[in-house]
Protein backbone atom coordinates (compact mmCIF):
# COMPACT_ATOMS: atom_id res chain seq x y z
CA UNK A 1 0.00 0.00 0.00
CA UNK A 2 1.21 3.38 -0.94
CA UNK A 3 1.44 6.27 1.47
CA UNK A 4 -0.53 9.30 0.81
CA UNK A 5 1.34 12.48 0.02
CA UNK A 6 -0.65 14.18 2.77
CA UNK A 7 1.18 12.14 5.39
CA UNK A 8 4.64 12.48 3.85
CA UNK A 9 4.54 16.25 3.41
CA UNK A 10 5.09 17.22 7.11
CA UNK A 11 8.08 14.88 7.32
CA UNK A 12 9.67 16.48 4.27
CA UNK A 13 9.20 19.95 5.72
CA UNK A 14 10.67 18.91 9.07
CA UNK A 15 13.67 17.29 7.38
CA UNK A 16 14.26 20.39 5.22
CA UNK A 17 14.06 22.70 8.25
CA UNK A 18 16.59 20.60 10.14
CA UNK A 19 19.14 20.81 7.33
CA UNK A 20 19.03 24.58 6.80
CA UNK A 21 22.48 25.08 8.39
CA UNK A 22 24.33 23.74 5.38
CA UNK A 23 27.79 25.29 5.07
CA UNK A 24 28.05 26.44 8.70
CA UNK A 25 30.39 23.58 9.64
CA UNK A 26 33.10 24.97 7.36
CA UNK A 27 32.67 28.43 8.86
CA UNK A 28 32.83 27.04 12.40
CA UNK A 29 35.93 25.02 11.54
CA UNK A 30 37.70 28.09 10.14
CA UNK A 31 36.73 30.31 13.09
CA UNK A 32 37.76 27.77 15.73
CA UNK A 33 40.90 26.91 13.76
CA UNK A 34 42.02 30.54 13.65
CA UNK A 35 41.17 31.06 17.32
CA UNK A 36 43.27 28.03 18.26
CA UNK A 37 46.07 28.62 15.77
CA UNK A 38 46.94 32.21 16.71
CA UNK A 39 47.81 31.45 20.37
CA UNK A 40 49.66 28.31 19.31
CA UNK A 41 51.81 30.26 16.83
CA UNK A 42 52.51 32.91 19.48
CA UNK A 43 53.52 30.21 21.95
CA UNK A 44 55.94 28.70 19.43
CA UNK A 45 57.47 32.11 18.68
CA UNK A 46 57.80 33.00 22.38
CA UNK A 47 59.34 29.65 23.29
CA UNK A 48 61.73 29.96 20.36
CA UNK A 49 62.89 33.37 21.60
CA UNK A 50 63.36 32.06 25.14
CA UNK A 51 65.24 29.00 23.91
CA UNK A 52 67.53 31.13 21.73
CA UNK A 53 68.39 33.42 24.62
CA UNK A 54 68.92 30.41 26.91
CA UNK A 55 71.39 28.95 24.46
CA UNK A 56 73.13 32.33 24.25
CA UNK A 57 73.43 32.61 28.03
CA UNK A 58 74.75 29.06 28.27
CA UNK A 59 77.29 29.63 25.49
CA UNK A 60 78.36 32.91 27.08
CA UNK A 61 78.91 31.33 30.49
CA UNK A 62 80.81 28.37 29.06
CA UNK A 63 83.08 30.38 26.73
CA UNK A 64 83.79 33.15 29.25
CA UNK A 65 84.70 30.56 31.89
CA UNK A 66 87.04 28.83 29.45
CA UNK A 67 88.61 32.11 28.31
CA UNK A 68 89.25 33.32 31.85
CA UNK A 69 90.47 29.96 33.15
CA UNK A 70 93.04 29.56 30.39
CA UNK A 71 94.34 33.15 30.49
CA UNK A 72 97.81 33.90 31.80
CA UNK A 73 96.88 36.81 34.08
CA UNK A 74 94.06 39.13 35.11
CA UNK A 75 94.53 41.66 32.30
CA UNK A 76 94.46 38.95 29.63
CA UNK A 77 91.46 37.34 31.31
CA UNK A 78 89.48 40.59 31.34
CA UNK A 79 90.30 41.31 27.71
CA UNK A 80 89.42 37.78 26.58
CA UNK A 81 86.21 37.66 28.62
CA UNK A 82 85.01 40.98 27.19
CA UNK A 83 85.76 39.86 23.62
CA UNK A 84 84.00 36.52 24.09
CA UNK A 85 80.97 38.11 25.73
CA UNK A 86 80.64 40.73 22.97
CA UNK A 87 80.79 37.97 20.37
CA UNK A 88 78.14 35.83 22.08
CA UNK A 89 75.84 38.80 22.65
CA UNK A 90 76.07 39.75 18.97
CA UNK A 91 75.64 36.19 17.71
CA UNK A 92 72.57 35.35 19.79
CA UNK A 93 70.93 38.78 19.65
CA UNK A 94 70.97 39.32 23.40
CA UNK A 95 70.33 42.83 24.70
CA UNK A 96 73.78 43.93 25.97
CA UNK A 97 72.25 46.24 28.60
CA UNK A 98 70.48 43.29 30.26
CA UNK A 99 73.46 40.90 30.47
CA UNK A 100 74.93 40.36 33.93
CA UNK A 101 78.08 38.27 34.51
CA UNK A 102 79.29 37.09 37.90
CA UNK A 103 82.41 35.15 38.87
CA UNK A 104 82.91 32.95 41.93
CA UNK A 105 85.68 30.55 42.84
CA UNK A 106 85.79 27.32 44.73
CA UNK A 107 87.25 26.95 47.27
CA UNK A 108 85.89 30.27 48.44
CA UNK A 109 87.79 32.80 50.49
CA UNK A 110 90.83 33.32 48.36
CA UNK A 111 91.62 35.42 45.35
CA UNK A 112 89.36 34.82 42.36
CA UNK A 113 90.49 33.44 39.97
CA UNK A 114 93.44 31.67 41.49
CA UNK A 115 95.71 28.94 40.11
CA UNK A 116 94.10 25.52 40.54
CA UNK A 117 90.73 26.86 41.74
CA UNK A 118 87.41 26.09 40.06
CA UNK A 119 85.93 29.19 38.43
CA UNK A 120 82.12 29.40 38.21
CA UNK A 121 80.76 31.95 35.73
CA UNK A 122 77.07 32.86 35.78
CA UNK A 123 75.48 34.79 32.92
CA UNK A 124 71.96 36.11 33.41
CA UNK A 125 69.71 38.10 31.12
CA UNK A 126 66.04 38.77 30.45
CA UNK A 127 64.09 37.77 27.35
CA UNK A 128 61.40 40.17 26.17
CA UNK A 129 58.30 38.36 24.98
CA UNK A 130 57.55 39.10 21.32
CA UNK A 131 54.77 41.45 20.21
CA UNK A 132 54.19 42.98 23.66
CA UNK A 133 53.43 46.69 23.21
CA UNK A 134 55.11 49.35 25.35
CA UNK A 135 51.72 50.42 26.71
CA UNK A 136 51.42 50.90 30.48
CA UNK A 137 54.87 49.40 30.97
CA UNK A 138 53.87 45.97 29.66
CA UNK A 139 57.17 45.64 27.80
CA UNK A 140 59.05 45.87 31.11
CA UNK A 141 56.82 43.33 32.84
CA UNK A 142 56.61 40.77 30.03
CA UNK A 143 60.17 39.47 30.41
CA UNK A 144 61.43 36.01 31.23
CA UNK A 145 64.65 35.76 33.28
CA UNK A 146 67.28 33.38 31.90
CA UNK A 147 70.41 32.28 33.75
CA UNK A 148 73.21 29.87 32.92
CA UNK A 149 76.32 28.80 34.82
CA UNK A 150 79.52 27.08 33.81
CA UNK A 151 82.45 25.78 35.86
CA UNK A 152 86.03 25.57 34.65
CA UNK A 153 89.25 24.60 36.39
CA UNK A 154 91.71 27.51 36.37
CA UNK A 155 95.10 26.79 34.86
CA UNK A 156 97.82 26.02 37.37
CA UNK A 157 99.97 28.53 35.50
CA UNK A 158 97.53 31.40 36.26
CA UNK A 159 99.36 34.55 37.16
CA UNK A 160 102.80 33.25 36.15
CA UNK A 161 102.97 35.70 33.30
What does this 3D model show about the protein?
This protein has 161 residues and is an alpha+beta fold. The protein has helices spanning 5-18, 24-69, 74-92, 138-141, and strands at 100-106, 118-128, 143-153. It has a three-stranded antiparallel sheet. The mean pLDDT is 86.
Query: How are strands sequenced across the largest beta sheet?
Result: 1-2-3
Which descriptor suits the 3D outline? rod-shaped
Structural class by SSE content = alpha+beta
Quaternary state of this entry equals single chain
Largest sheet entry: 3 strands, antiparallel
Tell me what portion of residues adopts beta-strand conformation: 15-25%
Query: For the residues shown, what is the average pLDDT?
Result: 86
The arrangement of helices and strands along the chain is HHHEEHE
Compute the separation of the termini in Å.
114 Å
Low-confidence stretches: none
Helix content: 40-55%
Task: Give the number of DSSP strands.
Answer: 3
Rg result: 31 Å
Counted by DSSP, the helix tally is: 4
What's the SSE blueprint?
Layout: H1 5-18, H2 24-69, H3 74-92, E1 100-106, E2 118-128, H4 138-141, E3 143-153
Antiparallel strand pairs: 1-2, 2-3
Helix pairs in contact: 2-3
Short précis:
With 161 residues, this protein is of the alpha+beta class.
Features:
161 residues, alpha+beta, three-stranded antiparallel sheet, 4 helices
